Amino acid sequence: MRVLMIICLLYSGQSVALDLEAVTSWYQQVELSTTVDGMVSRVNVGVGEKVSRGTILIELDQRAYTSRLAAAESRLEAATQQNAEAKRELDRSLELYDRTLLSDHERKQAEIEAAESDAAYREADAQLAKVRLHIDYSRITAPFDGIVEEIYVQPGQAVINRQQAQPLLNLCHTGQMKVTTDVTAQQADKLKSGIGVQIGLRGEWLNGEISRVGLKPVAEDANGARYLLEAMFQPPESVVVRAGEKAVLRIADE
Length: 254
Description:
Largest sheet: 6 strands, antiparallel, barrel
Order of helices and strands: EEEEEEEHHEEEEEHEEEE
Low-confidence stretches: 1-14
CATH class of the largest domain: Mainly Beta
Number of domains: 3
Distance between the termini: 22 Å
Oligomer: single chain
């Protein structure tokens, strides 16, 4: 990476030591997918659209899930009633046993039936929770405030995740971005995460801080190995900063 300037002058009250060519990139981006299968029924966003955390981005057809939910609720209701009756029967059996009107075998049988009924109730309850979880998974929501970079599916498309989760949408964090550049080993030795820097972008200077100083070479030139340097910054809310834009990373002399 070519150094633009190595000068000493005052800029905003600080002595500028080094300006480096840099490139913007996303601070965080994720390919959103789901662990359940289904048919895409709705895509609620478009490429380039800003969304808030929790926004439903993509929905799978809910009809199959609604049917499974109703069946699971019915099974739980039946298991609840059977479990209550089994407990009442166990209480009656224990009372008769205490009065020596019931054999050990009959008491044990009542205990086994009560335990089996309780296990069936717990299984039905777990199945209902699983169905509800799958319904949540069938609605893909934004995990953070971001911008939609790419959409890989459309309504009517089948989503099948038997072997590997299928990517549905790519979301990029808009609250923060980063710039990347590279520096020499001597320069890297003087830097660490948290040091304040300035980011020159589109004719403006924005405050930022170093977030990463690499430990292994990413390039090499006539002066030797060069190491990754990243700095985070908050882009203006009024504009959409894109990944790959040219920027300047300004490191002030300490």
